[in-house]
């Protein structure tokens, strides 16, 4: 392996460590993006050009609700979802921080 190939491989490993693989279903279509761990899930989706519902961007309105089908996130704040909602897997994308290495979310069924 050349030095350049080794450098590229290290860069790819760094990128994968800093990102979360997101599989999402929206309007009947399934898409994959990489989520930079430093930003909220909603920002990652919007940055990827995916126009998901949003409004307040601070966990207060519920416009960005989606269902977490696989993986784990932590909500930085939550003024909307009840304990029952959380147990059903509902999350607020605007205040979601990653926990697991990959997640699957669905905007169509919740
Ligand atoms: S956009 Fe309002 S709670 Fe997420």
Automatic annotation (TrEMBL):
Keywords: 2Fe-2S, Electron transport, Iron, Iron-sulfur, Metal-binding, Transport. SUPFAM superfamilies: 2Fe-2S ferredoxin-like. Its cofactor is [2Fe-2S] cluster. Residues 20-110 form the 2Fe-2S ferredoxin-type domain. Coiled coil: none annotated. Gene3D superfamilies: 3.10.20.30. Belongs to the 2Fe2S plant-type ferredoxin family. PANTHER family: FERREDOXIN, FERREDOXIN-2, CHLOROPLASTIC. This is 2Fe-2S iron-sulfur cluster binding domain-containing protein. It comes from Sphingobacterium thalpophilum.
């Amino acid at each position: 392996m050349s030095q350049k190939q080794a450098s590229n491989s290290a860069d790819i490993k760094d990128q994968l460590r800093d990102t979360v693989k997101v599989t999402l279903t929206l309007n009947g279509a399934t898409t994959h993006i990489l989520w930079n761990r430093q930003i909220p899930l909603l920002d990652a989706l919007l940055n990827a050009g995916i126009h998901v519902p949003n409004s307040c961007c601070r966990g207060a309105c519920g416009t960005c609700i989606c269902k977490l089908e696989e993986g784990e996130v932590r909500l930085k704040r939550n003024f909307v979802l009840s304990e029952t909602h959380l147990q059903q897997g509902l999350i607020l994308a605007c205040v979601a921080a990653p926990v697991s290495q990959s997640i699957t979310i669905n905007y169509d069924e919740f």
